[in-house]
Write a structure and sequence with these properties.
The chain is mostly helical and 155 residues long. Helices cover 55% and strands 0% of the residues.
């Protein structure tokens, strides 16, 4: 109760502070090269970590940590599309190691960073004749040949 005053008996329901949530979101959008500590967000928003976590989730539907993680993975995905080693993409986006990034990348997008890069390259070469490149982006489309199908040899 001492750490979070909003848990005290008789505490009123927290009011949403849209300006603080917006400041936190902009800060997290800009800080894609490291793990953002709650003290940094407290300084930016003027809210305690508990108030911010509640308000951020109420406004955006996810926690500040998860939002930050997904922004960092977006940065890693952009770097993967540009080429370069996976380890460099991991370190540039604040992950401790390539394996750390790969684990989170696969959990978030359903495929490994190396597989994503191959699919992105294949898609880029297939769309060179079209106007602009759409890339895999957030939709993470799978080409038909990459979808594993069950064998129909069963009786």
């Amino acid at each position: 109760v001492a750490a979070d005053p909003s848990c005290a008996a008789g505490a009123r329901p927290p009011r949403l502070d849209p300006a603080a949530v917006t400041r936190a979101r902009h800060f997290l959008d800009a800080a894609t090269d490291h793990v953002v500590r709650s003290e940094e967000l407290e300084a930016v928003t003027g809210l305690t970590r508990y108030e911010l976590a509640r308000q951020f989730r109420a406004a955006l539907g996810t926690s500040p940590y998860r939002y930050s993680l997904l922004r960092r993975l977006d940065g890693a995905r952009e770097r993967l599309g540009a080429g370069g080693p996976l380890a460099e993409a991991a370190l540039a986006t604040g992950f401790a190691a390539q394996a750390h990034m790969s684990r989170h990348f696969k959990a978030a997008f359903g495929l490994s960073p190396a597989r994503y890069r191959r699919l992105e390259a294949r898609l880029a070469t297939a769309t060179t004749s079209s106007v602009g490149s759409t890339g895999l982006g957030m939709c993470m489309l799978y080409p038909a040949e990459s979808v594993r199908r069950r064998s129909s040899t069963r009786p």
